């Protein structure tokens, strides 16, 4: 994603085959022009018609001379509202020295891969404009057309949000077109990588070990074999990532696979529509309008936004197959089956026991847009299909806000990803893999080494024990209408103070957030404090807040949680947060029991050292706006006798701490 102001048909005619070394005068691909030098790499730029004739703005970086006679291909996919330049650089260093960057382009860009003998395909996703380079280290390659990859309202050349029926086919088509034009490109050695918007596509593409859609349409184009995918801060369930419901995943009944539905569902009906991440959803919609144009047919994405965000809840009658209108039904299906890797069960099961795409996925503990559960659920699913599936996860303080993206962590992550890719690019193969984690370190009260690494065989195995806090105070939370952004909510200033999207892009708050409101009116927010810890503990994993509730005045309600590390001087740092939608009715099929029940509200998670002498603060509230969309259930009254916080710890002990 591009972090600037977040508010505000003919088919391809193939060229002749290339010789066995890279050709630098031209690319050999119809639509791409000459290939001038940018620094010390040759990049060919132009416009190529996709499978449906929609023009796409393309760059092709050629492998450097002296890197062999046969070359692999890597496709590098940009983030939302960005363009083909994002993963391009004139040096191996990429963006590592640029303070406003994510720093993940170090040794992971077109220059790095071309130097190591790869063809590198980068292109502007359909529907987006190419407004040129956005970083000093990017080559200033020309756009393929004045409007990048946008062709106009009512045409297919609009933003389809990485649909299986559009953008996924675009990537396969362009890759096959390049392979057909270069005989020294090995069609059996293909990799894909991307961040955020491109990370979600990378996971979906990984479900397809053989890319044959282009060949099926045009037999002159080759079938490609995808060996490796390296998604950065991705989604695997777009419905849950944009609107988490907090319910356990139907796949295995745990919070580590929380999702909209099970992998085999085509409708996403097994859990309720979640709580919209308002600042992110609104920011994306604004950026999509400013830098591209959304699809309106066959799926009406602006209507989805109007129904889910502008109109808001209730979205259904409290149980499966009770959606209030077709837009909500289409949204469930569109953001799961058509846009989520987790729901490509037919493709994943076809790989199991045969050749399986190798995946190295990077997620951020502090990424509040696509948190680690997006990779955890997919890891669990693939390992259930084959315990030796070559899928490896790495988690750190990286990704979208509130991530700090320390360069030291990205150097480590990209070194590991490069080693993994080299092992698998010439033929992916089954292997034992791990899940690794690096910590979040916030000064002055944070503790730990930002490059310290913990490992486990599974996400759950990162921890060996638990830290439980029993908060004895009862609570009553009343829903209310908060002031509209950018106004500060006087009844809970921490709502705006902890918002990730507006807080970072508009208000320019630091990514380590401190509390402005240690105490508020009890009906607005429940706040409990633990006793001081007598020993330090490393919190690593997800964790949850357990609350036995009674809900009156509504059939649906939003419950938000924030967890803080409170130093002896009272300074409180945000550690993690979470959300849960209570949604029920009187039927046995209800998503939640009414009027009373017990919820385990899952947290986004972290690796965080809790020092001795520090206290753990738990906030519960019905209103955490603008991070989450407020509920329309203004009469909702949520009561509970006490609350419990359970955090997984690296230490192999189970300790319980009192709180009030």
Attribute tags:
Jelly Rolls; disordered N terminus; twelve-stranded mixed sheet; single chain; 13 helices; Rossmann fold; 2 domains; alpha/beta
Number of domains as seen in the coordinates: 2
Strand content: 15-25%
CATH domain class of the largest domain: Alpha Beta
**How many beta-strand segments?**
25
Work out the oligomeric state of the chains in this entry: single chain
- Largest β sheet strand count, sense and barrel closure: 12 strands, mixed
Q: In CATH, what is the homologous superfamily of the largest domain?
A: Alpha/Beta hydrolase fold, catalytic domain
Mean pLDDT: 94
Helix content: 10-25%
First-residue to last-residue Cα separation: 41 Å
- Determine the number of helices (DSSP H or I, runs of at least 4 residues): 13
User: Radius of gyration, Cα only, in angstroms?
Assistant: 24 Å
- Kindly report the CATH topology of the largest domain: Rossmann fold
Please identify, by name, the CATH architecture of the largest domain: 3-Layer(aba) Sandwich
Class from helix and strand fractions: alpha/beta
What best-fitting shape do the alpha-carbon axes yield?
A: globular
Poorly predicted runs: 1-25
